Predict the structure.
Amino acid sequence: MKRRIALVVPAFPKLSETFIVSKFMGLLERGWDVHVVCSTSEEKEWARFPQLPPGARKRVHRGWPHRPKWKAALLLPFAVMACFQAAPGRTWRYLRQARHREGLLEALGRLYLDLPLIRLGPDVVHFEFGALATERMDLRELLGCRITVSFRGYDLNFVGLDQPGYFDAVWAGAAGLHFLGEDLWRRARRRGCPPDRFHMLIPPAIDVEFHKRDEAELSRKSEGSRPLRILSVGRLEWKKGYENALLAIRRLLDRGVACEYRIVGDGDYLPAVAFMRRQLVLEGVVEVLGALPREDVRQEMQSADVLLHSAVSEGFCNAVIEAQSMELPVVCTDADGLRENVADGETGFVVPRRDPEALAAKLEVLARDPALRQRMGKAGRKRVLMNFRLSDQLDRLEDFYRQVLNGVRADAGREESAEPPPKAARSAVRT
Amino acid sequence: MTATEPLRLLVVGTTWPPQTFLGRLMRGLADRGLRVQIAFSKWPDEDWFLKSKLKTFKTRAWEGPIPVRIAWLAWLLGLAILRSPRVVGRFWRFASGQRSFSERLRVLNRLLPYAGVPCDVIYFPWNSAAIDYLPLFEIDRPVVVSCRGSQVNVAPHDPRRSVREGLPVTFRKASLVHCVSQAIEAEAGRYGLDPKKSRVIQTGVDPSFFSPVDTREPSDRIRVVTTGRLDWNKGLTYGLQAIRGLVDAGVPVMFSIIGDGPDRQRILFAIDDLGLHDSVRLLGRLAPIAVRDELRRSDIFILPSLTEGLSNAAVEAMGCGLPVVLTDVGGAREAVVDGVEGFVVPLWDSPAMTEAVRNLARDPQLRMRMGRAARERVLRDFTAERHFREFVGLFEECRQ
């Protein structure tokens, strides 16, 4: 029988975290007993994922409400009963140990929060974001499971930067660490991760069949003198650095390059983007489309000429992979994982972050050279097929979990470690 | 009514505790004989408040357990009907126009505390408050609205808020409109503010509180300081890039950031990403006296804002005798003449800010000259005394 894996995320499913859905479905199809533990799961998000199989809902476990507090207190006895009913031995062990650590009341409080995990009793608890794991590493003893953690960008880049040793418990207790790329692994070591920890570098992957240029529509694209269509896909957050993108567009226009800029995404920085659009007199040039379902995003990519990604901090960026897969040349910054994502000069251009001038210069090069755009687009597609296929990613993920389950003992925080396997080494794509 | 009777002012739409500058304004007005009435949502225990002559009454946010909300609303309703049934009727009709039942209750909960409060002038210190409390324009009292900055500069462009639609309505209905700078007045004009209604009253600080010290502690580094909410519109990442530029140019510098806010993580990341650990201190939110002491310990004040009304923070620093470097937004040029009290540098241009700070850093004479000019400018144009006097005049003008 395949082993049981619990993926821990804040919300599932979620449009901006489609990669979790892909991972969940992929592992499921390959026969793993995979479950998702989350705190919210919204109906309108489920509607955006028709591809999720009918049985998926049974595998998604929501925590019980912990606010308002009186509600949680009322529900607590039922939670304890539910745990004992599902797994008496495990619950007993959990309570005994937790009580030993922090007293009965705290133990019960923790049980309430960990309820879905106690009932599941997984072999591996996988925290999909590093920041989720920091205070929950004792699940290893409480549940007798192995803990694995993914680092996807924001966690290592800026969470807890002002607290030295923020991730120390994770480094010590995780049976396996997953990083999207070389840059994050380097950051992890800078933030105290011993270099001998068992880890794998597995870049994100996409559905290369879905994100494929529709050749029938290609003829429309090659029309002569229309403005350059620039597209960005990403949440409206500070880390995406949209101010630099807008400044670059301003400069591009000032140099007489006709262009239009569309932004797919929504978020807290909408007021900032809207304000800058007005301040830089870009109304009519820049359009913010909000969050879109993936079919619409594909359509946007289909009709765009260039993908612009101005991030100051970025784990790896799926949208950039998708754009390359759609044969769009990419102009992006050198923020973190983007350097590994785009081959500079081949599938697009990588320029210093916080440098609108550099972005504008590369956009201008692409604007004036349709043949170059096409060449880079083709190279992008090739690169994605080589490096970022979903099936390859799933192979590696399976490999990761097998190694965690076989090679490393559950309580082996410190003793055992493994060199990254050759497959992972290959994932460190050319820079 | 004679002018000798104290003017009763009703202040609507402040958060509690109010922003430091707003608290000062309220106290200043109360000290000058106005009867200032202000609502609060939490029992104030701040020392300055207990000593002040402000009159207060209680409001409650529409949150918490449902029975408590209903009970509170019933209490409000009873009280309001006793005080002024006519106004309650007006509020009720406004609430009936809301889309959903819960929205109606929310609106009533917001409005009812103000029904029948005796006053001569209603004052909204924020545009957004005026928009939220629209029915208060209808109770036959003169209304004054303040245009302070981002609510005129930024909020109208936010597609999720209805400020763009709300501003013209409030400007039309208000008796007088206060603007913190001529720049804001011009911007508000785009939303229908009639210049005849508008009064520019620039910010003021207490020059005996924000005053220079004779001798600053010596330091082997240039001490640069900024204060403000850590928010995108303060442009702090550009400030940090400017500091990076100074470090690259070999200027020994220590940059202190006073304030807290939603952008804290962004700032932390930028410090880390730009390799500025040894050159930046993030001090968090400080009490006014600690802010003042930090200003007194510093050599140069910078403000890399992307948008401003007219910065209180900059004027406070000028009061402490600091040369200031401001970005050219809002009322910056109304507070500082480029090259006299400091420098005004272009927006989106951290090298320009680096250059200005560098000029000050390498020339102690220039710093001293500009610092002195800044202090003189505050004494001439930006005293709290003048600020309060003009506000009293504004409200009196309204009453007549």
